[in-house]
Amino acid sequence: MAAGSCLLLLLPWLVIASHSPPGCKIRITSKGLDLVKQEGLRFVEQELQNITVSDLHGKEGQFHYNISQVRVMDLQLAFSDLNFQPQQHLVFNINNASISLRFRRQLLYWFFYDIGSINASADGVQIHTVLKLAKDEAGRPKISNITCNASIARMHAGFSGTLRKVYEFLSTFIVTGMRYLLSQQICPSLEHASLVLLNSLLDTVPVRNYVDEHIGIDYSLLRDPSVSTDTLDLDFKGMFFPRVKEDQELENHAVEPVIKETERMVYVAFSEYFFDSAMQAYFQAGVLTIELQGEKVPKDLEVLLRATFFGTIFMLSPSVDAPLQLLLQVSAPPRCTIKPSGTSVSVSAFLNISLVPPDRPPVQLSSMAMETKLSAKVFLQGKALRVQLDLRRYSQGPVGAWGGSRPHLTHSCFLPSRFRIYSKQSALESLALFSLQAPLKTLLQLTIMPIINERTKKGVQIPLPEGMDFTREVVTNHAGFLTVGADLHFSKGLREVIEKYRPVPTAAAYPSSQPAEPSLDPGSL
Predict the structure, then answer these.
(1) DSSP alpha helices (H): ranges in 365-493?
(2) Is residue 189 within 8 Å of residue 158, measured between CB atoms?
(3) Which residues form the Lipid-binding serum glycoprotein N-terminal domain (predicted)?
(4) CA 422 to CA 430: how far, in whole Å?
(5) Tell me, what's the pLDDT at 395?
(6) Which residues of 194-217 are buried (b: 16+ CB within 10 A; e: fewer)?
(7) Which residue(s) pair with 82 in the sheet?
(8) Are strands 481-490 and 468-477 parallel, antiparallel or unpaired?
C-alpha cells in the first residue's frame, strides 16, 4: 500500500520528466490553414481530373452496351472547407460539387447498332476526408491515415441522334453503373494523393541536415503534431550538433516556448536552448578561434597594441619590427539570454598578443582574458534564420520587432554593453590594461565582429516544406524565448514540388503495353 502511494506521488514528476521541451516550435493558425486550403483545392482538382474509371459493359434484355475511355472534362468544387479537428486531424470537405464526364459508347438494341460519345454530369458530389497527422520514424510530420467517404446524388447523360428517345429510356442502366464506378474511384484517388504525393512534399521538410562544414541541425519532431480547434502545433527538437560527434545529445533545461498569438498565419518560436546548442556545437568543433598575423592584423589595432606594449617590444630588440600575432579563442561555450528587452550572448575568451620574429619562436607580449556580452539581432531572410552580433548593446521598445526581409529597428539605439579585459598574469598588468579597454572594444567591433558575422551570414533554414516561404515577418522577444510571426505564400505550387520528387514508376506498376481499343464489331457485344 505504501509503495503504491509513493508511485502515485512520483507519477506527476515522471510525466514532467518524459516531456522534453522543444527547442523550436511551429504553430499554424486558421489563417494559415485557409491559404493551404486554396492551394490544396487546386491540387485536389488536378487529382480528380486524373481519375481512371474502368470500362462498363453488360446487357439488359435486348439492350447491349459498352462504355469506355471515360474522361473527366471539368470540375466545379465551389463549396469546400479545411478545418482542424483535435487531437491530430485535418478535415477536408467538398459539398455539392459537380463533375463533367465524356466517354465512348457502343450500343446494340435489337438490330440497331450505334457508336459515339456521351457527355454526362455528376451533381451533388459530397466528399468527406479526415487526415490523421503523426511523426514518422525519422521525426518528420506525416499523414499516417486517411478516412474518406464520397457520394454522388444524381447523374445525367445526354444523348443525341435519331435514337435519342430510346437511349434516354434505356440509359438508366448506364447512368446507375457510371455513378457507382465514379464514386468508387474518388476516395482511392484522394488516398493516393495524401499518403503518397502529399507525404512526398512533407519529405522536403529538413529534419537532420548539415548547416555548414562544422555543425548540423536536428529538427526531428519530439511527438505527434497537436491539433486544437484553431491551431496546429509542431514541437521540434531544435538542437545543433558538431559534425565530429553527430550522436551527441545536449539536455534541454531552457524555458519551453509558449505561443499565444493567432493573428498571423504561422508562428515559429526558438528557446535559448536552440541558440545555446549552436554555440556549444561550434565550440566543440573547435572553430571559435580567430588568428590574425602580420598583414591580416588591422593597422589601427596594430598601432594601438604596439603603442601599449612599446616598452616590452623595445626591450626585445632587434625584434622590434617583427610581425604581430593575435589569437582570440573562446574559452567556454557562449550562452544566450533572451529577455523582452533584447537578446544577448555572454562570451568568455582569451586574447594572446605575440611578436613573431622571422626564424625565431613567438614572443608573447600579453595574455589577457575577455568577458563580454554581445547584442544579438535575430531576423529572417527567406526561410533562413540569421543572427547578427554586435559589441554594442541593442536597446529597443517594449516589444522587439523586425519586419520584412531585413531588420527593421523600432525605437532603437545602441548603448554601451559589458566588456572587460584583465591580465591572466598579474593584477598590475590588469590595471595597465584598463586604458586599453575602450579603444580595444571599438577596434574589435570594427575588425573582429565583421569576421564573426560573415561566418554566420548563411543562417539556418526553418523546417518548412519546399515551395512555402515567409512574408511580413515580425520578431518578438519573451522571457527565455523569441517568436517569429509571419504570413505564408507559395513560391512553388504543390504540383510543381510533388512532380519534382515523384518516385519513378516501376514497370510492374505501369505496364508498357497500352490497353486494346474496344471492339467495334456488334457481335462482340
Answers:
(1) 427-433, 437-455
(2) no
(3) 27-245
(4) 5
(5) 52
(6) bbebbbbbeebbbbbeebeebbbb
(7) 92
(8) antiparallel
Place of cell 536597446: 395
Instruction: Print burial letters for 144-168: b (CB count within 10 Å at least 16), e (below 16).
Output: eebebebebeebebebeeeeeebbe
Tell me the three cell numbers of residue 239.
538542437
User: Which H helix or E strand runs over 166?
Assistant: helix 164-192
Section 399-422 average pLDDT: 49
Q: Which of 18, 13, 6, 27 is nearest to 481 (CA)?
A: 27
Query: Within 193-342, where are the H helices?
Result: 199-202, 272-284, 299-308, 310-315
CB 207 within 8 A of CB 219: yes
- Pick from 293, 266, 288, 264: which is nearest to 278 by CA? 288
Cα–Cα–Cα angle for 97, 102, 73, rounded to 5 degrees: 50
| Cβ count near 27 (within 10 Å) | 25
> Distance between CA 281 and CA 466 in Å, rounded?
26
Is the pLDDT at 243 greater than 60? The verdict is yes
In the sheet where 208-210 sits, what is the strand order? 208-210, 215-218, 239-242
In angstroms, what is the C-alpha Rg of the chain?
34
Cell of 469: 516561404
What's this model's pTM, rounded to 2 decimal places? Answer: 0.81
pLDDT of residue 409: 35
Beta strand ranges found along 201-285 (DSSP E):
208-210, 215-218, 226-227, 231-236, 239-242, 266-271
